[in-house]
Design goal:
Radius of gyration: 22 Å
Structural class: mainly alpha
Strand content: under 5%
C-alpha cells in the first residue's frame, strides 16, 4: 500500500496518542483515521437500510377506505 506523509500539530498528535493509548504517533493517527472511515461506512449502511425500509413502505398499495 502506498504511504503518505502528513505534517500535524505536535499537540494534536500527543492528544491522539493519549486518547488512543498508543505510544507511536504514526500508529495513533492511523487508528483514528481507520476508526473515522469505519464509522462512515457503518453510517452509510444504516442510512441505506433505513432508506430501503422507507421505500418498501411507500411501495405497498393502500387499503381502500370505507
Amino acid at each position: 500500500m502506498a504511504k503518505v506523509t502528513v505534517s500535524l500539530d505536535a499537540q494534536l498528535v500527543v492528544e491522539v496518542m493519549a486518547l488512543a493509548d498508543v505510544g507511536n504517533p504514526q500508529d495513533a493517527v492511523e487508528l483514528v483515521v481507520r476508526d473515522y472511515v469505519e464509522r462512515g461506512h457503518r453510517t452509510e449502511a444504516r442510512t441505506a437500510a433505513r432508506e430501503e425500509a422507507l421505500r418498501a413502505v411507500d411501495v405497498k398499495p393502500r387499503d381502500p377506505e370505507g
